[in-house]
């Protein structure tokens, strides 16, 4: 439905939001040297096959020693048994018991922060509320001082880069430089705290990471722990703010669906799943072929870069009926917004808990909450994300 994309000023490069999908579900982009996969079954086949397609896409580039130090240990680049082993270790921080404790903490903290907005007719939903909430929660999770949560804004900068992945010329190196460069101050910040945790462990995620071991029993190097922590932040810290912001845009565009949710709060969980499908935040994921493969009837040689277009796959009519309709009751809704397979988003459970509680508290306090029609939302600039970084709302 192009009215939605046009209303919010989204560019034509987000073609799936305009109801336009390529006929070729697997195609080679000569300009970038990357194979683009847009079909749902084709994307799913790649995500579920970690032997033929590796998440370690950096192996296709001549990564220098300094760049390698900024990448090794990043769970998003791991593959195979080592990746599964690391997920199990960090998974303790996202266990069902941890999520129960988190629910209590989110409820109390959200209540405290939203009290500060009492009486205001308009505010920035992210800048005045959700960014602080998510920043404090992740500070407590990692074990960093909450008053220094502004350091996490380095992750925002990487999402504003408009550099696109390419295997042509120096495209790959430029891409990684654009992603890694803004993170250097955050790395220094985390490095100092990791040193402190080695001397005096606490009940936090950084203390847990210091104890991480590879399959052979060897410990993670200092830089690798930093990279692991940055990856957790990148995957989790912005998920809830972006998802709630995107949800507000969807509800503002589809008032009938919004009325259903306001009347029946039991629809809140399925509403967020539909936002993940309809207005997918993280729209792109990368893999590299480990062997000659055939995907969607197309042969792809070994050593090729694959771009998985998750946003487009979530609009594939072969999987979803009425793909361009925003339906908060959609079931089943097996979207790939959180990925799939061995690299399924490890923070998905946390995101679901956080967004459900925050949204219900917002509606409790501000029954008439809506997007401010006089102030346009500000979106992140990355071609790999579709999400707001600033969203003005009204309560009257």
Report strand order across the widest sheet. Answer: 1-2-8-5-3
Question: In CATH's first tier, which class applies?
Answer: Mainly Alpha
Our count of helices gives: 16
Low-confidence stretches: none
* Global mean pLDDT: 92
- The secondary-structure element order is HEEHEHHHEHHHHHHHHHEEEEHHEEEE
What is the fold named in CATH at topology level? Cytochrome p450
Rounded to the nearest angstrom, the radius of gyration is 21 Å
Number of strands: 12
Query: Kindly, what is the distance between the CA atoms of the first and last residues, rounded to a whole number of angstroms?
Result: 29 Å
The name of the CATH architecture is: Orthogonal Bundle
Overall number of structural domains: 1
Provide structural commentary:
With 396 residues, this protein is an alpha+beta fold. It has one domain: Cytochrome P450 (Cytochrome p450, Orthogonal Bundle). The protein is built from 16 helices and 12 strands. It has helices spanning 2-7, 40-47, 65-69, 80-90, 96-115, 126-142, 153-158, 171-180, 184-199, 205-210, 222-236, 239-253, 255-263, 268-278, 310-313, 348-365, and strands at residues 26-29, 34-37, 53-54, 122-124, 284-289, 293-295, 298-300, 305-309, 370-371, 378-379, 388-390, 392-394. The strands form 4 sheets. It has a 5-stranded mixed sheet with strand order 1-2-8-5-3. Strand 1 and strand 2 form a beta hairpin. Helix 12 (239-253) crosses helix 16.
């Amino acid at each position: 439905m192009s009215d939605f994309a046009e209303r919010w000023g989204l560019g034509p490069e987000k073609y799936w939001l305009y109801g336009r999908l390529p006929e070729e579900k697997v195609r080679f982009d000569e300009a970038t040297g990357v194979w683009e996969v847009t079909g749902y079954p084709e994307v799913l086949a790649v995500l579920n096959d970690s032997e033929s397609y590796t998440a370690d896409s950096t192996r296709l580039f001549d990564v220098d020693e300094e760049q390698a130090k900024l990448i090794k240990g990043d769970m998003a680049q791991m593959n195979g048994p080592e990746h599964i082993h690391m997920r199990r270790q960090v998974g303790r921080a996202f266990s069902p018991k941890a999520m129960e404790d988190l629910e209590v903490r989110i409820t109390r903290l959200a209540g405290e922060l939203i009290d500060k907005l009492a009486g205001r007719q308009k505010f920035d939903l992210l800048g005045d509320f959700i960014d602080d909430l998510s920043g404090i929660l992740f500070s407590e999770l990692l074990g960093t001082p909450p008053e220094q949560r502004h350091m996490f804004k380095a992750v925002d900068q990487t999402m504003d880069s408009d550099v696109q992945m390419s295997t042509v010329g120096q495209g790959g190196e430029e891409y990684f430089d654009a992603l890694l460069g803004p993170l250097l101050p955050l790395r220094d910040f985390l490095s100092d705290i990791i040193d402190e945790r080695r001397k005096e462990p606490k009940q936090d995620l950084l203390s847990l990471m210091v104890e991480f071991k590879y399959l052979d029993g060897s410990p993670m190097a200092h830089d690798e722990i930093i990279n692991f922590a940055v990856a957790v932040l990148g995957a989790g810290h912005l998920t809830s703010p972006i998802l709630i912001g995107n949800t507000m845009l969807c509800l503002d565009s589809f008032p009938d669906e919004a009325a259903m949710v306001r009347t029946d709060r039991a629809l809140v969980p399925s509403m967020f799943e539909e936002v993940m499908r309809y207005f997918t935040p993280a729209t792109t994921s990368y893999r590299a072929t480990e062997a000659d493969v055939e995907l969607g009837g197309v042969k792809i040689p070994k050593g090729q870069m694959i771009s998985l277009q998750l946003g487009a796959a979530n609009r594939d009519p072969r999987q979803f009926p009425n793909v361009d309709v925003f339906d908060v009751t959609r079931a089943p809704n097996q979207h790939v917004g959180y990925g799939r397979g061995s690299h399924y988003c490890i923070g998905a459970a946390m995101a679901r808990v956080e967004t459900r509680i925050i949204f219900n508290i917002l509606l409790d306090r501000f029954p008439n909450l809506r997007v401010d029609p006089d102030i346009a939302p500000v979106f992140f600039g990355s071609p790999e994300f579709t999400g707001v970084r600033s969203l003005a709302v009204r309560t009257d």
